[in-house]
Design goal:
Layout: H1 12-20, H2 26-29, E1 40-44, H3 47-62, E2 69-72, H4 81-85, E3 90-93, H5 103-110, E4 117-121, H6 130-140, E5 143-148, E6 164-167, H7 169-172, E7 179-183, H8 188-193, H9 198-207, H10 217-228, H11 232-235, H12 259-268, H13 272-289, E8 297-299, E9 308-313, H14 316-328, E10 334-335, H15 341-345, H16 351-359, E11 360-364, H17 371-379, H18 385-389, E12 394-398, H19 403-411, H20 422-432, E13 435-443, E14 446-458, E15 461-467, E16 471-472, H21 479-492, E17 499-504, H22 511-519, H23 541-547, H24 550-561, E18 565-569, H25 572-589, H26 596-605, E19 612-617, E20 620-626
Parallel strand pairs: 2-3, 2-4, 4-5, 5-6, 15-17
Antiparallel strand pairs: 1-7, 6-7, 8-9, 9-11, 10-11, 12-13, 13-14, 14-15, 14-16, 18-19, 19-20
Length: 627
């Protein structure tokens, strides 16, 4: 059963393991969120306590009282309650439609109200303008705090620029509480503000806080109920409809992370990169369900590790009606929590934030959602969407032509490879007795992709292998086209009909393409996979060099300085020299590649297109490759 929940649920094995394991040390637990060697981590129950700790730290560090804290106007009001109780002055600066600080207005405001602490928010996991924030804070000699509460882990520019960065793992992982504050003790602004030790000052502040953590029994009880009971029992009755599950009540002053949370977090950390990829895949799938002709809404695209998928409606009325409609359908739709009252009372200065609050809706895309759950959420966007995504006018036409015409089709693809060449199929037919079939996938009569299959029969069961295919014609690579191509293949070969399809798709391993395959019901094998790289030789040489990995580029420079010469030919002597070393490499590195006879037969069939490149050092061949 695929569950639809706003937050990921803990797995049973994680719960059992958390009872049996000892909580790790705080430094070990914080490792995924450390970006620099000098980073110092501190654990709290929630990010609201990290902001309070930073503000109190500033007072002790500078020997001044009540720092002026700058916060973006598009901000949840609930986490500010402890700052308000301590009477810290708050200034809400405006953001742009791109969720970035409005720097022009910020500079104007700084002329009359100097910032002491500037909070930069990375909304929904999308990197904000860290470089611009660093420049602004250095200019005004204020502390930069990166609010990465919506970020699973440091990604792109997130977490690189602030004196402080805080993350809220409890928002993105199956743990009851937990926020980590990262302190960076060596920066230009810190040296200008004081000569005290920043880390010692923070430890003094933390020692004055209550050493209490929140209770976790209700969280565990609720999550276990969600795991056991049907979704509809809670989706239509949830009290909190916002992305942070805010109930607007007072937060108990229990600032430390609980032991259960630390234990559960230790079971989650080994999978954190998988979770990041799952979130990207789920977002790619939901984007495909969006109907661009729908007048109500507009889905925003971004390449990042997302917290939620955001859905921007055209107007407030559209948002309210759409929200109610989706709730009635049992969709896990959410909105933004309440804005600070200062923003609402001075609405003319905060138009973008108020508009975003009124028009943005959100959907979960966390790693705990299965494909069927993501499809259900996507289908709730509107009745037209399933038909938009699933098109029935794709079909396979089996190819009965010759080698020359097949080569013409191959030449129309953007990423041809030798495993889809005619010669490759003929060699496999000869040396492995494979049945070779070639097909054209057509959409409304137009060929959109081609593929070559190798088939072996084991009694009534046939195993069909597609190596590095299908190849898409003329770069028709939007999500819907790719999905329908792979869905057509999947539906052609059904296991209950004795047809088992194994495929190594000719796709870049991106979240979108993984989403295509998952949505078309392909399952990734657990066996070790091999990968290939692609170099665009149409670029200028200096452009190609720039795109190389730095370490690889350095090795290339060394090779060029060592007086290595390149020999190119297609003789049998060079081929067998290379194959002898290929056999030895498979033995030394314990892997099994394509058989030697395959390359011999390919060379004999296609000698004019296969060449051995040899690297010669002092006249002796030291390396080679078949191209």
């Amino acid at each position: 059963m695929s569950k639809i929940t706003l937050s990921p649920l803990p797995e049973w094995r994680a719960i059992v393991k958390s009872v049996l394991t000892k909580p790790p040390k705080e430094e070990e637990l914080a490792e995924p969120w450390l970006s620099k060697d000098s980073d110092v981590p501190y654990w709290f129950s929630r990010s609201t306590f990290t902001m309070l700790a930073i503000s109190q730290w500033w007072e002790v560090y500078t020997d001044k009282k009540l720092p002026t804290i700058w916060i973006p106007d598009y901000f949840c009001n609930e986490p500010l309650q402890f700052l308000r109780k301590s009477n810290f002055p708050l200034n809400f600066y405006p953001i742009t439609n791109q969720l970035l600080p409005d720097w022009e207005t910020c500079q104007d405001q700084a002329l009359s109200l100097k910032p002491d602490i500037f909070i930069l928010v990375h909304y929904f996991g999308y990197p904000s303008d860290g470089k611009g924030a660093l420049k602004f804070c250095n200019e005004h000699k204020c502390i930069l705090v990166e609010d990465a509460a919506h970020s699973l882990i440091p990604h792109q520019d997130i977490g690189l620029y602030g004196e402080f960065v805080f993350y809220s793992p409890h928002k993105l992982l199956a743990i009851p509480n937990g926020a980590v504050l990262i302190q960076r003790p060596k920066t230009k602004v810190l040296r200008e503000l004081s000569n005290k030790n920043p880390v010692e000052v923070m430890n003094q502040v933390l020692a004055t806080m209550p050493q209490d953590s929140p209770s976790t029994w209700f969280w565990m009880f609720k999550r276990n109920l969600q795991k056991l009971l049907p979704d509809f029992l809670w989706l239509t009755r949830q009290k909190a409809n916002n992305i942070d599950d805010v109930s607007y009540g007072p937060i108990p002053f229990k600032p430390l992370q609980s032991r259960l949370s630390r234990r559960l977090l230790s079971t989650e950390i080994p999978h954190i990169n998988e979770y990041a990829l799952s979130r990207q895949i789920n977002q790619a799938i939901l984007r495909a369900y969006y109907n661009s002709s729908e007048e109500k809404a507009q889905l925003i695209k971004n390449d990042y590790v997302p917290y939620m998928t955001d859905f921007g409606c055209k107007t407030k009325n559209h948002a309210e009606k759409y929200f109610q409609l989706l709730k009635e359908k049992g969709s896990p739709v959410m909105d933004w929590p309440d804005l600070p009252p200062e923003v609402l009372t001075e609405s003319e200065n905060h138009l973008v934030a108020i508009e975003l609050k009124k028009t943005k809706l959100f959907f979960p895309i966390h790693q705990g959602l299965g494909i069927s759950a993501v499809k259900k959420i996507g289908s709730s966007f509107g009745t037209k969407l399933p038909e938009t995504l699933d098109e029935n006018n794709y079909e396979i036409e089996w190819y009965n032509g010759g080698k020359e015409k097949w080569f013409e089709w191959i030449s129309k693809t953007e990423t041809p490879n030798f495993m889809q060449l005619w010669e490759y199929g003929e060699v496999k037919k000869t040396i492995e007795s494979c049945k070779v079939k070639r097909g054209l996938i057509k959409h409304n009569g137009q060929t959109v992709a081609i593929f070559q299959t190798l088939e072996k029969s084991l009694g009534p069961v046939s195993v069909i292998r597609i190596n590095r295919g299908p190849l898409i014609i003329n770069g028709n690579v939007d999500f819907n086209t790719k999905y329908n191509i792979y869905k057509t293949l999947r539906e052609t070969y059904r296991w209950w009909k004795g047809k088992i399809l194994l495929i190594a798709p000719a796709l870049v391993e991106s979240p979108e393409n993984l989403g295509v395959l998952a949505l078309a019901h392909f399952r990734k094998r657990t066996a070790k996979q091999w990968h290939s790289s692609m170099i665009d030789l149409s670029l200028e040489e200096n452009e190609i060099r720039k795109k190389l990995n730095g370490k690889w580029r350095n090795q290339l420079k060394k090779a060029e300085k060592s007086n290595i010469k390149i020999k190119i030919d297609n003789s049998d002597v060079s081929l067998f020299w290379l194959l002898d070393r290929y056999k030895q490499m498979m033995k030394d590195k314990s892997f099994k590649g394509p058989g030697v006879q395959l390359y011999i037969d390919l060379h004999s069939l296609n000698k004019n297109n296969l060449y051995v490149f040899q690297a010669l050092l002092d006249g002796q061949a030291v390396a080679g490759i078949l191209i």
